[in-house]
């Protein structure tokens, strides 16, 4: 089945530690996104990538990093510089290529990150 | 700058009553707008989207939304809500990136 997979479902981070959240899609989508969800804050865009080997900062990129070495993978690293990392992280993908009429975000099931 | 505003954080309606969730956008060109729903313990599901054409858009689960350029709005409506509609609703827009409002949590009274 085609879809978007996030792992792990739950993740714990110690002080000063970097952690990486995985996001894989087999939908052959060009565009991928990372969102952070906090109660009352909605979905805030961290980073997005419209094509392999290219990505752009979203609205809250500080303390995060990403890579897009493969079309199907868009891992997110939460660095020690992110002082308030506890949140629910959602990865999404879309067909991209400016085909807005076909645009639809496919979301993963999310990763809950907590600080120990 | 591209932005989406959902003025209502919480909305409570009685089962069977009509519903309208507000969404305002800030956008320079023709907007691409959509609504997603997130039910408890479930992922996000697309309800409907607008890109061009008819400004009244029909979606799934009996929802519709109307694009009003003069008001920069894309409000979501349903004529009669069901208890299963209790969820969080997100309005969003697409330019070079896809962004969302802060969401409106819908509570249903029996």
What's the mean pLDDT score of chain B? 92
Q: Globular, elongated, flat, extended or rod-shaped: what is the shape of chain B?
A: globular
Terminal-residue CA separation of chain A: 35 Å
Give Rg of chain A in angstroms: 14 Å
Number of extended strands of chain A: 11
DSSP strand content of chain A: over 45%
Radius of gyration of chain B: 13 Å
- Helix % of chain B is under 10%
* Helix vs. strand class of chain A: mainly beta
Written description of the protein model:
- The complex is a heterodimer of chains A (116) and B (110).
- With 116 residues, chain A is mainly beta.
- Chain A is 0% helix and 50% strand.
- Chain A has strands at 4-7, 10-13, 19-25, 31-38, 42-51, 54-57, 64-66, 76-78, 87-94, 106-107, 111-115.
- In chain A, the strands form two sheets. In chain A, strands 2, 4, 5, 6, 9, 10 and 11 form a seven-stranded mixed β-sheet that branches. In chain A, strands 1-3-8-7 form a four-stranded antiparallel β-sheet, with no helix packed on it.
- In chain A, a hairpin with a 2-residue loop joins strand 5 and strand 6 (54-57).
- Chain A is globular, with a radius of gyration of 14 Å.
- With 110 residues, chain B is mainly beta.
- Chain B is 0% helix and 54% strand.
- Chain B is built from no helices and twelve strands.
- Chain B has strands at residues 3-5, 10-14, 19-21, 24-26, 32-38, 44-50, 56-58, 64-68, 73-78, 87-94, 98-100, 104-109.
- In chain B, strands 2, 5, 6, 10, 11 and 12 form a six-stranded mixed β-sheet that branches. A four-stranded antiparallel β-sheet of chain B has the order 3-9-8-7, with no helix packed on it.
- In chain B, a hairpin with a 4-residue loop joins strand 8 and strand 9 (73-78).
- The mean pLDDT of chain B is 92.
- At the A-B interface, strand 5 and strand 9 of A face strand 6, strand 10 and strand 11 of B.
